[in-house]
Amino acid sequence: MNRPFLVDLDITGRQVELEAWVEFSSAVDDDAKDGLVEAMSTFAKLGAAGALSGAGLDPGQAGAILARRGFARREGHCTFQDVRIAPASICVLLNMLHWVHLEVKPVSKVRISWLAIGQLADPLAVQFPEQWPRPSFRLSIGDLLGDIDVNIEFDKPQSQEAADSVVKAMSIWLLSSHRGAYADNDFDPSKSAIYLGPDVMEVSPDRIIWFVEVMRCNESALYGLINLLEWVHQKIAPIRYVEIGP
């Protein structure tokens, strides 16, 4: 994917700390500050909820915290700490900064310092964290054309508070899709999103069903959702079965 801004990647940083400097094309205003912080906070929450763990890290051990943010005249600087996410998450981060460029304020240059970038053969390629290969629940993925349902069955009935916490975690993934996280060469970040249908969702003590009407993004977004549900299984509510399909 061609980026509309210069990208400078530094692999001399630390494995558990990621820094991003975003140079805007003009002076930083409140909209730029709010837009950048919101997008970067969403990226951190996505990482903290296990979605970016990839195939090599148990989602329950994943993490990311937006520890510091600051602004100069034309630049924003964000520092993420306790970073335990897959190296391919760099594509998700660049996608979300690409969304900032298109939807908030034009960006002229991005510099990212993170040791894990050095593990990638082509850090600027379109690539996403893979699915965790050992989910704790039974998983079935059917035909992904058209409308799909995400059916999550709990191991035992859950309280309303627990069910709400699961929906809140899943909503981080949904919001990230609207911030360009899973954009690719077919869907640019400003047009990339996952939309729920008119019925939105069904929530009961035994299950949660999300009715997905449109996925305008790379299908690897589903790897992120499955990884996030593994995190949910370990941290919030044990899951027995997940079915994704018509």
Please give a quick description of this structure.
With 246 residues, this protein is α+β, with helices and mostly antiparallel strands. Helix content is 28%, strand content 32%.
Mean pLDDT: 96
Strand order of the largest sheet: 1-5-2-4-3
Radius of gyration: 18 Å
In terms of per-residue confidence, which ranges show pLDDT below 50 for 5 or more consecutive residues?
Answer: none
- Helical percent range? 25-40%
CATH architecture of the largest domain: 2-Layer Sandwich
Shape: globular
Give the biggest sheet: 5 strands, mixed
Strand percent estimate: 25-35%
- What gap, in angstroms, lies between the N and C termini? 30 Å
User: Based on DSSP secondary structure assignment, what is the total number of beta strands?
Assistant: 10
Our count of helices gives 4
Keywords:
10 strands; Alpha-Beta Plaits; five-stranded mixed sheet; 28% helix; 246 residues; 2 domains; 4 helices; alpha+beta; single chain
Strand and helix map with partners:
Elements (H helix, E strand, L loop, with lengths): L5 E5 L6 E8 L5 H19 L14 E9 L3 E10 L4 H15 L3 E7 L24 E4 L6 E7 L5 H19 L14 E11 L3 E10 L4 H15 L3 E7 L1
Parallel strand pairs: 1-5, 6-10
Antiparallel strand pairs: 2-4, 2-5, 3-4, 7-9, 7-10, 8-9
Helix pairs in contact: 1-2, 1-3, 3-4
What does this structure look like?
By secondary structure, the protein is of the alpha+beta class. The protein has 2 domains: 6-119, Alpha-Beta Plaits (2-Layer Sandwich); 138-245, Alpha-Beta Plaits. It has 4 helices and 10 strands; from the N terminus they run ββαββαβββαββαβ. The strands form 2 sheets. A 5-stranded mixed sheet has the order 1-5-2-4-3, covered by helices on one side. α1 (30-48) crosses α3 (160-178). The protein is globular and about 50 Å long. The mean pLDDT is 96.
